[in-house]
Write a structure and sequence with these properties.
Length: 246
């Protein structure tokens, strides 16, 4: 019988683990490049936490294997959105992140988000190998819903519909000082702060951008569509928010 020293390293096992990690990274590179404008090797290196040399090698290997990546080192890379790729699998960390996010949305996101989260998780699970499905089932992260009021979830749903349909939202609002006002706003986006949702909007009363705490809204109604006006879009709202944070 062959004897091994107690400090012997079994290289085949380590090699298999390294190859699995590299396969995951190659799929990640392909997905990051798909349908985007030119992405530099430096950006890929930062996102994937690897060296530039590793990115150049991985991209070259993907190109040699037939993945139609366009571009070159020093300029940038892209992959046509319609390019055909082998089916992707998820790493354990990716599955955990997806499941945790979906469970939080089921609790905090309103009926629309909750239904979408459950459906997405079911589709992901059905496409996973048995061991990865078990990873989802064993994930010890929960988002209890017994303390969430149904009217809160209904407001999230209404504002989500307002954003999708570009419709004016009318509601009574109480600010932090207790002042009551009637508002008509153009909802532009939703933000989740952990047990708290806000909506960024153009406020007709203030003729300016405002951020509203959804829990402080009452009697939310959707009204007519609002126009697409330069200076009152989501990108404009985000630009104003970033400027105030400097």
């Amino acid at each position: 019988m062959r004897r091994y020293h107690r400090d012997t390293v079994f290289l085949p096992s380590r090699l298999a683990f390294t190859m699995t990690r590299r396969a995951d990274r190659l799929f990640q590179i392909a997905e990051l490049l798909r349908g985007r404008r030119l992405t530099t090797a430096q950006q890929l290196a930062e996102w994937l936490h690897v060296s530039l040399r590793t990115v150049y090698r991985d991209v070259r290997d993907l190109q040699l294997s037939g993945v139609p990546i366009e571009g070159e080192a020093g300029i940038g890379y892209r992959l046509n959105r319609n390019a055909s790729l082998p089916p992707l699998t998820f790493t354990a960390d990716e599955l955990a992140a997806l499941a945790a996010g979906a469970r939080m949305l089921e609790t905090w996101g309103g009926a629309g988000f909750a239904s979408g989260a459950r459906g997405a998780l079911a589709k992901i699970a059905s496409a996973m190998p048995a061991d990865r499905r078990a990873t989802l089932d064993r994930l010890p992260i929960y988002a209890p819903s017994f303390h969430i009021k149904p009217e809160f979830s209904a407001k999230v749903d209404l504002l989500h519909q307002a954003i999708d349909g570009r419709r004016v939202a009318r509601f009574a609002y109480q600010d932090r000082d207790g002042a009551q006002t009637e508002r008509r706003v153009w909802p532009l986006g939703l933000a989740y702060w952990g047990a708290r949702w806000t909506t960024g909007a153009w406020c007709e009363l203030r003729n300016d951008f405002r951020n509203f705490d959804i829990d402080r809204m009452r009697d939310v109604e959707l009204q007519e569509p609002f126009p697409d006006i330069e200076g009152r879009r989501l990108a404009d709202f985000l630009r104003v928010v970033r400027a105030k944070q400097r």
